[in-house]
Automatic annotation (TrEMBL):
The keyword Signal applies. Gene3D superfamilies: 1.20.1280.50. Pfam families: F-box. Keywords: Signal. It comes from Eucalyptus grandis. This is F-box domain-containing protein. InterPro entries: F-box-like_dom_sf, F-box_dom.
Length: 389
């Protein structure tokens, strides 16, 4: 009974320490192991012990000996794996992605733990959740499928990984750039794990579908719009490269330096070339914030444009007598344009809305009602400093 109480108290004290300084405790534990090892196996020379330096990615990720072999070579010195299960899991949860990646190269037991989806899911959601949607995941699975069919051997997976990263994996996490050549071994997983997907995104080798506000560096013709594009992350600048599909006879446009606040995941599962089927027309009232598809002509894909529902010209805008919400016509106002602009106002049919417009003013497509403050504030942050003509 007394021993059980002592174990419980010790674990509680360990969790309290890890709660405040998890990485410092981990470092202290490593130093203690090293000191114990040196005391049992003194060096023949009396030269001072040099501090350990960062090993190369090849050394980190090459196959490591089994835990049992490591303990035997060190004369039974204590290791991180001697910690209680909950304590070890708590430490791994506190590690950043680069820490998990480095720890996975220590030994086989830690490799399997550190590559678990349980730990990487949190890092994935924390950094990528806002810009990665279901469409991006589908593309990732399509990228994996043909390489899975090439063979199930580890060698085949390794070659597939090297092809995926074009034989070069820029690793900024450890403060140095590491090149992976054909003569080097790499045991990184190439599979459907979250860790594999995270690395593909982080290195910028995976282009994923998303949407960009104010495309082409805020070109005046695209202000307060959101267009589909393919994105690739640039870890050096913490920005993105965007590839926009051809518009009519225009070639594919490439934009660099796209910041995080200009990105979002696609809000609907509708191709930019297809009309979105609106499900909110009956509920639209003056003052509602909306997005509507618009394209210049039939050859262009749709972009999403921000607007608000306005009042009919016959309405006196008195809330007590306003009947605009029961009318068959819905007025949409785009207040970023001056009052005389042909794009400042349009009217659509509430009961039978399809694509409406012409070759002069463009074509209006499906409508989404914005239902959260976050969606509305994202548009308002991009409001132009001057009214557009």
């Amino acid at each position: 009974m007394l021993s059980r109480c002592l174990i419980t108290s010790s674990l509680s004290f360990l969790f309290l320490l890890l709660e405040s300084h998890p990485l410092k405790i981990l470092s202290s534990w490593t130093c203690a192991c090293a000191s114990l090892f040196r005391s049992r196996h003194p060096s023949p020379s009396h030269s001072p012990v040099q501090p350990p330096r960062l090993s190369s990615l090849k050394e980190k990720m090459s196959p490591a000996p089994e835990p049992g072999n490591a303990e035997e070579s060190q004369g039974g010195a204590p290791s991180l794996l001697d910690l209680p299960e909950l304590a070890l899991e708590y430490i791994l949860e506190k590690l950043p992605p680069e820490g998990l990646l480095s720890m996975s190269g220590v030994c086989t037991a830690l490799r399997d733990r550190c590559r678990s989806d349980y730990f990487w899911d949190k890092h994935m959601k924390r950094k990528w959740d806002r810009v990665i949607g279901p469409s991006a995941y589908k593309v990732w699975q399509l990228c994996l499928a043909p390489r899975r069919d090439n063979g199930d051997s580890n060698q085949g997976k390794q070659k597939g990984l090297l092809r995926l990263f074009s034989l070069v994996w820029p690793c900024s996490w450890a403060g140095e750039r590491i090149n992976i050549g054909q003569d080097q071994t790499c045991s990184l997983p190439y599979d459907s794990s979250v860790m594999s997907w995270y690395i593909a995104l982080e290195t910028g080798r995976f282009w994923f579908p998303a949407q960009v506000y104010n495309r082409e560096n805020g070109h005046a013709g695209f202000l307060l719009s959101c267009y589909d594009a393919e994105l690739s992350y640039d870890f050096r600048t913490d920005t993105f490269r965007a590839r926009y599909p051809p518009h009519g006879r225009r070639a594919m446009a490439l934009e660099t330096g796209v910041t995080w606040e200009r990105l979002r995941s696609p809000q609907v599962d509708t191709s930019p070339h297809d009309l979105h089927l609106s499900d909110c027309l009956k509920d639209l009232c003056p003052g509602d914030h909306v997005e509507i598809q618009w394209r210049r002509n039939k050859e262009f894909p749709y972009g999403w444009w921000y607007g608000v529902v306005g009042h009919l010209e016959s309405c006196n805008r008195n809330e007590s007598y306003c009947r605009c919400s029961s009318s068959g016509a819905v007025v949409l106002e785009f207040n970023q344009y001056s009052a005389g602009s042909p794009w400042s106002r349009t009217t659509i049919d509430r009961r039978n809305h399809r694509e409406e417009g012409n070759e002069v003013d463009g074509f209006y497509g499906g409508i989404r009602k914005l239902r959260t403050d976050d969606e509305i504030s994202a548009w308002k942050r991009l409001w132009p400093t001057e009214l557009l003509e």
